Amino acid sequence: MREDCLFCRLISGELASYKVYEDASIFAFLDINPASEGHTLIAPKKHFESFTELGAEDVAALFEAARKITLALEKAFSAEGSNIGINNGEVAGQEVPHVHVHVIPRKKGDGGRGIKSVVWTETDRTDLENMAEKLKKAL
Ligand code: 5GP
Ligand code: ZN
Questions:
Q1: Does 88 sit in the ligand 1 pocket, CB within 6 Å?
Q2: How far from the centroid of its chain's Cα atoms is residue 116's Cα?
């Protein structure tokens, strides 16, 4: 619990939220400014700023909760699909520095686009080869 973290304060109950799910390590609640009907945020109860700080068990718990909630959202709101994602870091659009997964239910004709609409760059085959080499070295 970080006193200066908005989501820690929602999770502790100090600030009100529309909680939809909770277990030993996870807290899920409606986004106050939803991108679509049912837009839900799923967060670890423990404060981590970035996705890369999570351990394997934290990741498993977070994404298992996201999977369950995606199923429930699609059923509850008759959605035909969802965008499931994390804005990791300020440069990627993260506004609240407590890691959370967005589940945004989607319907045909809602006017939204896919995950590649967040950023785009032209790339050729040689670039791909170099990218793969660079990444493999870093892993
Ligand atoms: P991020 O940009 O960090 O990935 O997402 C932060 C999300 O938190 C935004 O979609 C924003 O609408 C939501 N949000 C910001 N403040 C509050 C709040 O006080 N309560 C709730 N439920 N959601 C919030
Ligand atoms: Zn926090």
A1: no
A2: 15
Examine the pLDDT at 126 and tell me if it is beyond 90.
Answer: no
Is 98 catalytic? The answer is no
Ligand 2 center to residue 130 CA distance, Å? 37
Backbone angles phi, psi at 104, to 5 degrees: -115, 105
Condensed to tens digits (0 to 9), the pLDDT of residues 48-76 reads 999 999 999 999 999 999 999 999 999 99
Given ligand 1 and candidates 95, 101, 104, 118, which is best to mutate, with the most ligand atoms within 8 Å of its CB?
A: 95
33 touches 24 (CB < 8 A): no
**Domains by residue range for the chain, with CATH:** 6-138 (3.30.428.10)
Is the separation of the CB atoms in 103 and 40 below 8 Å?
A: yes
What burial class does residue 20 get, using C-beta atoms within 10 Å of its C-beta: 0-12 exposed, 13-18 middle, 19+ buried?
Answer: middle
Q: Which tokens sit at 73?
A: 């959202």
| Count of other CB atoms within 10 angstroms of residue 78 | 10
**Residue 125: its pLDDT value, please?**
84
What is this structure's pTM?
A: 0.97
The pLDDT of residue 116: 94
